[in-house]
Amino acid sequence: MRKIILLASVLMLTNSFVHAQKKKDLIAEIDKLRSELKGTQGELTEAKKNERVSQSKVKTMEAQVADLKDTNASLLANMNSFTELSNKKATNLQTSQEIIKSKDKQLNVINDAITANDSTNLAVFSQFKNAIGGDNIKIGGSTIFIILPNTTLFGENDKNYIVDEKAKSTLEKIAATLNANPNLTITVEGNSNALKLDGKKLIDNWDLSSRQAASVVRVLQTDYKVDPKRMEALGKSEYGTEGIETVTKIIINPKFDKFYNLVKDNMKN
Q: Does residue 69 share a domain with residue 149?
């Protein structure tokens, strides 16, 4: 009986020890799990934090991508505009070059006409120079001047307006050259500054200069058959802007009509 009681006591103690050991192990396991749970919660918190940071970075990157897309679209639009502008500039440049070529061609035609006109004037000048000789003939610009002193044409009397017979040989040479060049016209310009006009027969130097010029035109027409439609008479006086010159000028007027029409037609084109 005592053995049974002892065995029962041993069993009870053994069971108590095993139970205590299991309880201790269970508590240790619980503590371990709690520790692991705490660590896991920390990791979860850190993961959530990292997730928020990542989401923020993603949003930032998405915004940057959107900006880049907008910038790229703007660049493409600007590039298209630049290409279009470049094409327009190229077209305008080509048009300008064509206009310049056209204007250059027009200028060449006009320049050739001027050269031809100058050559004609030089030839006419040479003809008059050979005809009357001396230094009485001048050329200025495109106009030829024959300058004859009034004393040569009208004598020593400064109030005379009738051409002296001695001067007609010179006028005859001038008339011959004019008749040989029917395309030329002339203006006979009288200049006088006579003093003590009586105011009756000759009113003033305007009157005297006009009569002297008309007298020269009349001799060229009547004596030497120069077409009167090609001549005109002009009288000046002591009030001339070029000062007092007691000379008669025969101004050879170039025929500019053809030249002007040529220029006009080229400007229209």
A: no
Provide the domain count of the chain: 2
- At residue 232, the 3 state secondary structure works out as strand
Q: What's the rounded Cα separation, in Å, for the pair 147 and 135?
A: 9
pLDDT in tens, 168-190: 999 999 999 999 988 889 999 99
State how far the Cα of 67 lies from the Cα of 104, in Å rounded to an integer.
Answer: 53
Q: What are the residues facing 146 on neighbouring strands?
A: 137, 250
Q: What are phi and psi of 128, to 5 degrees?
A: -65, -40
Token pair in block for residue 168: 């007609």
Write out pLDDT tens, residues 220-264: 999 999 999 999 999 987 776 565 678 999 998 766 555 455 555
Q: In terms of C-beta density within 10 A (0-12 exposed, 13-18 middle, 19 or more buried), how is residue 189 classed?
A: buried
Retrieve residue 74's tokens.
């703007």
Q: Select from 96, 127, 145 the last residue of a domain.
A: 96
CA distances from 204 to 103, 154, 244 (A): 53, 17, 14
- pLDDT, position 154: 94
Phi then psi dihedrals of residue 136, to 5 deg: -80, -15
Per-residue pLDDT tens digits for 73-112: 877 777 777 677 778 777 887 777 777 766 666 555 555 4
Instruction: Kindly list the distances between the CA atom of residue 95 and the CA atoms of 8, 235, 251, in Å, as whole numbers in the listed order.
Output: 125, 54, 46
- Strands 185-191 and 247-253, by their bridges, are antiparallel
